[in-house]
Amino acid sequence: MSSYVDRLSYAARQTARVAWYAGHYAAGRRFLKPMPKPDFPIGPTPSRSELTADMRSLFEREWRDISAGLFPAPRPLVPEPRELLRRSLLYFRDLPQVDARRHGRLADELPPGTQADGLPDYYRQNFHFQSDGWLSERSAALYDTQVEVLFTGAADAMRRRALKPVAEWMKARNQRTLRGLDVGCGTGRLLAFLHEAWPGMKWTGLDLSPPYLAEARRTIGRTARVKLVEGAAEKLPFEESSLDVVVSSFLLHELPADVRRAALLEMARVVKPDGLVVVVDSIQKGDAPGWDGLLDLFPHHFHEPYYAEYAGGRLETWLDGAGFRQVSAERAFLSKVIAARR
Ligand SMILES: C[S@@+](CC[C@H](N)C(=O)[O-])C[C@H]1O[C@@H](n2cnc3c(N)ncnc32)[C@H](O)[C@@H]1O
Asked: How does strand 335-341 pair with strand 271-282?
């Protein structure tokens, strides 16, 4: 059972994270020139206090699950203050280039010499106006800070909402016999939390980016229980019905519709009939009444080539179309977490 001290420690850590990344957000605005007014209609947007209250309720729900014993309180994944500062400096040093891309002063450039690497065209872009797209160590080192600044310190907590349906499914199962997969694992944040919660289980993280996989290894640490493999979500290198749990966080909104459909069909193919699939991704239009304007502005401010199409669709319907039956759904701040069975 968690004690009062555990609760205080959890609250202090999350508050410190939010303050750290909110500080980056505020300071970063000095480097970023305002974007021109969009020339398309924008839906309603929430007030700052509404967003803050919603974020608080995300942390409260997570704490309830931790204190109910569903999964452990998260350990900080960047424990060294020096490392935190290094990442912070990297982030601020990169902002002028992000700003130049936002205002069209830099071409959509990616690291040279990579055209023959076999990566799909839809993938070779400066997603988020990020330097090098998904294709360099520099980008991999910057990514976690960029995402946390965007979500003012709540990105990890949103990813961790996937732990609840996994924990409920895991009851009465022996984790040592189970195999899980994180599709588009990126820098390995969700995988690290899953491994920490169920260290006896064998996990694989799959991603198209070798530098992101290398960063995931640094985040997770050396362990034979977590394998990291280069591969495409739309062509998973696993046998039919071979995996017990398949998760994916913030991948689907980065994919064109046909690739997204193929990726969902692949998840349905590789998961066992009694297995579980959990998808965490951005909310879509209508999920949070009064917030649709944020979804209109996001691709405009952050170069998300496939997001507008994603935001206008229904993840629930796409899962259904891939042969899944939904077992739970939760809106978690700016994301939603859907658990489904085949
Ligand atoms: C927005 S990031 C999400 C990463 C991570 N899951 C997270 O929660 O932060 C998208 C990730 O998906 C990867 N990715 C994009 N398209 C992919 C594909 N077709 N197959 C596998 N990985 C892909 C990118 O390399 C990147 O690491």
From this structure: antiparallel
- Cα first-last separation, the chain: 34
Mean pLDDT confidence for 250-265? 97
φ/ψ of residue 331, rounded to 5: -85, 125
- 0.90 cut: is pTM over it? yes
Around ligand 1, the residues with Cβ closer than 6 Å are 123, 134, 147, 159, 184-186, 189-190, 207-209, 212, 232-234, 249-251, 254-255, 259
189-197 vs 163-170: helix crossing angle, rounded to 10 = 30
**How much is the pLDDT for 113?**
46
CA 141 to ligand 1 centroid distance, Å: 15
CA–centroid distance, residue 184 to ligand 1 (Å)? 4
Q: What is the mean pLDDT of residues 3-8?
A: 88
